[in-house]
Structures are given as C-alpha cells and as structure tokens.
Amino acid sequence: MADSPSRSGVFQASTDKRLEAFAESISFDRRMYQQDIRGSIAHADMLADVGLLTREEFSTIRDTLKEIEAELDADQFPIRFELEDIHMHIEQALIDRIGDVGRKLHTARSRNDQVSTDVRMWVREALDTVDARLLELQRAFLSRCERDFDVVLPAYTHLQRAQPVIAPHYWMAYIEKLQRDRGRVADCRRRVNECSLGVAAVAGTTLPIDRNHTAKALEFDRPTANSLDTSSDRDFMLESAFVLSVIASHLSGWAEEWILWSTVEFDFIKMPHAFCTGSSIMPQKVNPDTLELTRGKSARVMGNLQTLMLLVKNLPLAYNRDLQEDKPPLFDSFDTVIASLELAIPIVEGSELQRDSIASRLERGYLDATTLMEWMIRKGMPQRRAHHLVGAIVGEAMNRDVPLSELPLDVMQSHASEIDESVYEILGSRNAVEAFVSYGSSAPEQVRSQIERWTKQLAAS
Which class of enzymes does this protein belong to (predicted)? Predict the structure, then answer.
C-alpha cells in the first residue's frame, strides 16, 4: 500500500481502523475538491517561480491534478476513508501517479493553511451565489410593484391593524431588508478574501516562497498577515454563519406573514400551487409547506451559528483538530439558505393578491385613525389632546359598527368642535394613504420615487 501523506516515520503503529472512521471528513469535505486543486496548482506554480520546482515538474503536477479533477467531476474517483479528507485523497492520487514529483507539491505547505485556503475560496464562491439569489429575490419583489400599485393593504403592529399602506410599499420593505443582507454579504466577503496559503503549519516557513504570488493567482485581495492567527482563524466562518442567520430570519418572517395571509381568516394572497402540498386525508387542503419549511429550516441555520460559536470558544492558538467539525454546519447553512432563496423567488413572482377580499375588509380596524389625529394636529390641537379625542371618536364608531368615514359630523364635533366637513377628505383608507407626505412613507409619490430608485439600482447590480 502507498504511504499515507499525513503519517511520518515517527509512527510505530498503523492507525486504528476505529480512529480512521472517527476522524474522516471525506464524506463532507469532498465538495471542496475544485478549490483544493485550484489552490494546489497555484501553489505549485509559485514553487516553480521561486525555484523550488522546475517548470517541467510544475507542468506534470498541473496536468495530473487536472486529470484527477476530471475524474472527480465525473464521480469516478475512488474514495478511501483511511486518507481522511479530500486534501489527502488528491495528494495521494498525485503521488501514486507521478511519484516523487507529486511528493514535492506539499513543500512549504501544511494541511492547516491548505484547508483554510480551500474553505475561504469555497465560502467566497458561496457568498457570491447567495448575493446573486438575494438580487433575484429583490427583483421579484420589485416586479410586483407596478401591477399591485393600486392595492391598499393594512399594515400591522403587534399583529393588529395599524395604518394603511399601498402594496408596493410593503414589497419594497423586503427589498430594503434584502439590501442590508447583501451589504453584510459584501462586508463578510472582504474579510474572507485573504489568502492563508503559505503560513504553513503555524509559524511560517524557512523556504523562499512568494505568498503574494499565490494570493494574486487565487484572486485574493492579499495574503493574511500573521501565521499564528491564520492557522486558527475561523472568524470568516462565524461571520458567514451570522450573515446567513440574518437572511434566514428575514425569510422566516416573510414566510410567516404569507402563511397567515394565505389563510381563510386573512385571505390576502394565493400562492402558486406548484409550491404547495395537500393533505393525506382532507381533500380541500392547499398547504403552504414551502413557506413552513422555510420558516422551520431557519432554525437549523441559526443553530449552526451556535454550533460554530461553541466549537471555537475555548480553542488555544493555533490549529486544533476540533476545527475539522466546522465544515458540516457551515455547508448546511449555505445549502439551506440558498435553497430557501431559490424557492422564495418564484413564490414571490407567482403569488396573487386577493384584491376583492382585501378591499371588502379594508375599513375594518380604523386604519385612518392616526391620519385623523394628525389632521387635528394640523388644525392646531396639541398631540396628546388629539390622541385622546380620536380614541373617543373611534369608540363611537365601534359602538355604531361603522368606519370613521361614515360617522356623522355632529357626532365627531361633539368630541372636538374644531372638526369640520373637510375631515372627510382624509378619512377612509385610500384617502389616508394619499395624505402621507414624509420621506420613506407610503405616500404614492414617495413610493413611486422609491420604485424608480430601486429599478435603477437593481438594474445596475
């Protein structure tokens, strides 16, 4: 059997098979094979540049690594659990095929900096995928704005009806959330994008390597600055997991709202049946299972952040084998969030507002009460007095089971003599929406301006 790259001559016994099974990570880290091969080729190129490999040796290593990559692409590469991880598998295959030239690849490199570099490249690509999906979801919400511009919705606080908003104002609330998510992704990516390769195990190397060469070849912004820190650093994983947790939280909140909106009790929205499921016993059921799973899977993403935080909290400098366990929760968080985003996009695009149902109950809940209070303030009334008086007027309307717009003028005047006939110009949910004027509000002019801004911004992304 060929020698294992990870065991030196100091060992007096073979690895126990139980340890091989306990220590393997090939079952989950093989997904980084492209990053490992790319990093290995860049490392070999640098070694040739500084004279630690010949150009002929580099070409042999590069070409053989490409052959191995093709076999991995085609799922024709043999897996041996005694080789622990994808890095050992690739290196052993290289040695098996080209002998001592393959043994030279690991010059001035440790698995510590090799793994860190591979994960950084993998995370960088995964963050780019997340950002692309966030952008698609923003565009899906934006695509609804024109077709739903005439729909007035109740906005809620404490899950109680509060004030009226036009539908695109609601859609753009999620565009704003997603833009903050994209900002966090971009910030995180900047800290990910430093190259670990060349710090070796922990202290650097005495060999004349060029770390800037490999950093540039692998499209990193710069090499990391401290070998001790680099060997142990998993901050970029923690930050990625946090960013993904916030995205999952946003998706979960959206899912919860639309689950409620799809009920008979709300009847605000109808979702595409392609993303719903039925019941094994109740033939009438159309269940929003995609949204329920989006809400449920967010718990996994947040749990993975907790797992990673606990994993690193007591580790001394520098590398410790505990860090092998960082990849399953990291991979799972990215997989879960990307899948959730990919499903959210067609749901947002394909769902339909139940316009008649929304309109038939729009005046329930006195959404125009705050507008009435502010109308009285503009008449010169102190806010606290206006607040109290409108509460009393709403009480009258509730007792009569009528909206404010149908309450007789003399009844309102019995509470506040300042009220005159012009009050009916701002009562009713549609009139109340038209009365908004502040920047960032649901005023149609403000919303139209925001739609134009987002149309330009997302087109340029």
Answer: lyase
Q: Please give the DSSP secondary-structure letter assigned to residue 56.
A: H
- Residue 122's SS3 state is helix
Is 158 catalytic? The answer is yes
Cβ 267 vs Cβ 354: under 8 Å: yes
Backbone angles phi, psi at 320, to 5 degrees: -135, 145
What residue type is assigned to position 422 of the chain?
S
Per-residue pLDDT tens for 96-114? 999 999 999 999 999 999 9
User: How far is residue 210's CA from residue 56's CA, in Å, rounded to a whole number?
Assistant: 19
Cα dihedral 172, 177, 178, 181, rounded to 10, equals 160
Q: Are 244 and 301 in contact (CB under 8 A)?
A: yes
Q: Which helix (H) or strand (E) holds 131?
A: helix 111-145
Task: Report angle CA 244, 246, 249 to the nearest 5 degrees.
Answer: 110
Q: Is 279 a catalytic residue?
A: yes
Active-site position among 14, 27, 143, 279: 279
Is omega for the bond preceding 318 within 30 degrees of 0, making it cis? yes
pLDDT of residue 319: 94
The string of pLDDT tens digits covering residues 345-369 is 999 999 999 999 999 999 999 999 9
Which one from 158, 417, 422, 438 is the annotated catalytic residue?
Answer: 158
Could you tell me the pTM of the whole model? Answer: 0.94
